[in-house]
Known about the structure:
It is a single chain. By secondary structure, the chain is α/β, with parallel strands linked by helices. Helix content is 29%, strand content 21%. The longest helix is centred in the C-terminal third of the chain and has 16 residues. The protein is globular.
Amino acid sequence: MKKNSKRYKEILKNAIRDKKVSSKEAIDLVKKNSTTKFDESIDVSLKINLKQSKGGDFNLRTIVNLPNGSGKKNKVAVLCEADKIDEAKKAGADVVGSDDLIEKIAAGKFNFTKLICTPGMMGKVGKHGKVLGPKGLMPNPKLGTVTTDIKKAVKDIKTGLVEIRNDKDGNLASTIGRKSFPSEKLLENFNHFIESVKKEKPDTIKGEFIKNTFLTSTMGISYKIGAK
């Protein structure tokens, strides 16, 4: 049987069971428990209501632009026409290409974590959806990754845009920053994230949209959030 480490046993002393805490208190506790040497991710997990009064279950897939960034470093690729390659490079893209990038994608060479595509190139990349989709790399207009505004798209992803989607059970999760972030900035990101999700509630869902909210860190323990 696997034994818990000394570090984990120590943070378990800070566990709060059968009780909800405020978002501010949870952030302070999560930061306190982030005792590893690396800059742990601070993560929020939600359970949302998918049951609509009409039609099938609701599926949420959208983007949230965190006001203080996520702290996550993305390697951004831009697939565009040859005459826009210089524009993409100046925008700060890490990987830029046209038909040559399509060839790399076809060969399964993915050295990036996000892919932005101009509308004119979607016809060429579309047939690779079965490869890109499962990796979360398929460009999507609703997620801001199919656009003519390359500069804005690259900046958004580099600075704090996070993509969220629920699983079949209504669970969704996202990072809201790093342990190195000041508590007030994490709290601002948290509140913005929650309000952004609430705005996605369709009229066909009755009652509370967000059922449960938890906050944790990469190597920490979770806390159930109640009142702010």
